[in-house]
Amino acid sequence: xxxxxxxDDPLAGEMTLAVLEEAGHSCQLAEHGLEALERLTEDxxxxxxxxxxxxxxxxxxxxxxxxxxxxxxxxxxxxxGDDPTPLLEREPGLRACLAKDxxxxxxxxxxxxxx
Length: 115
Prior knowledge:
- The protein is an alpha/beta fold.
- The protein has one domain: Response regulator (Rossmann fold, 3-Layer(aba) Sandwich).
- The protein is 43% helix and 21% strand.
- The model has no long low-confidence stretch (mean pLDDT 90).
- InterPro entries: Bact_response_regulator, CheY-like_superfamily, Sig_transdc_resp-reg_receiver.
- Keywords: Phosphoprotein.
């Protein structure tokens, strides 16, 4: 699967990229929501977006909403250090919202297998 990872924290972004590439996916990294929006608008071959929630300029939830307003409907997974449950309840179009914790390395590839 071709995945765009969006994270303003270089270490977290590289970790997510490594986990997903280890699982056999082709990934690219965007440093913030505006860069991701530009890439997704220009390149429709991304099959999934995995984005951090808290970022400057355009956060993960705003990125998700802007993509939907533009008619881009790639599955979207939000990663957060917060409790993910309220976000899923508020944004029913999100495929998943996962907590950034010690189990993310295992849970993220498992989630993608189910998508």
